Amino acid sequence: MKKYILTICIIFCAVGAYLAVIMFGGNIYNNSGQEKMYQTVATGSSADDIVSELVFGWKVKHPLGLRIVAKLLDLEHHVYPGLYELHDGMSSFEAVRLFRSGKRQTVRLTIRFARHYEEILHLADEKLEASYDDLFALANNRQFMDSLGFSSENTICLFLPDTYDFYWNTSARQFLERMSKEYSTYWNESRRAKARNIGLSPQQVMTLASIVDQETRHDDEKPKIAGVYMNRLKGSATAGKLQADPTIKFALNDFEIKRVRKGHIERAKTSPYSTYEHQGLPPSPICTPTKSGIEAVLNYSHHNFYFFCAQPNYSGYSDFSATFDQHLQKATAYQKWLTQEGF
Q: Smallest Cα–Cα separation from 54: which of 64, 103, 101, 166?
């Protein structure tokens, strides 16, 4: 009898020790050798889905232990979609408790230069759970975009270049609504008042800023260039036409053009983005405007310059002129320099 009881005890101890190992011992490992591991939990996932993805995606020594802990901790009723950070050698208990807690990581999405809003949707598709198809469909849903205050032409205004933190499981609607919120936060009453004072809407300011950004890489020169374009909008020297070369490149969808010539301008005549043909601003920004460009337009320099052209060197700065004759002389010098440099 004693032997029988002893055998039973040994069996129970062995089973208990085994369960302790598979439940609380190191179980989930990263084959790449990196200490941190990241696992996504898609919207609509079950506890079984989480366990299966861990077993499939990582080196799990004791899959059974993972499933036992998931059952014991009732993971099925505590599944929270998102991105989770695991560590190499994590136990089943630690992993399940993490998923059950809903302690999700954020992902960083940086919006930089883009010519079309679809480029930003592709970026969001790469970083977030929301698919490009869902994002594109919603961005082209006129009722939804109207509710945010954007038209089909100026959708790109919704996306201010900056770095944003999102939960990975952000949906298409949540992403676009967040961008709208960021837009409203940036365009506070102070900036809106400045826009009104110069006779432009926030979206018109962004349109002009996108052109200014394409004219110079120097932030300190942007207010002066913005002042030139504001003079052209309001003055008679150019009949209210911006005559901005970057808009011709955009109209032709040819950004390899080094010199905008008469032939380019002629080919772009039918485009609403040809600021040589049409008065005023084009329908929308020609790229995502930088915040420095926006601030340059809101606080543009007041002067009497109507023309500018690049300096005949590699500085990236411009020469400014009040009359066309002055501008022609400087432009001729610049064109001569370009030819000498082989452009």
A: 64
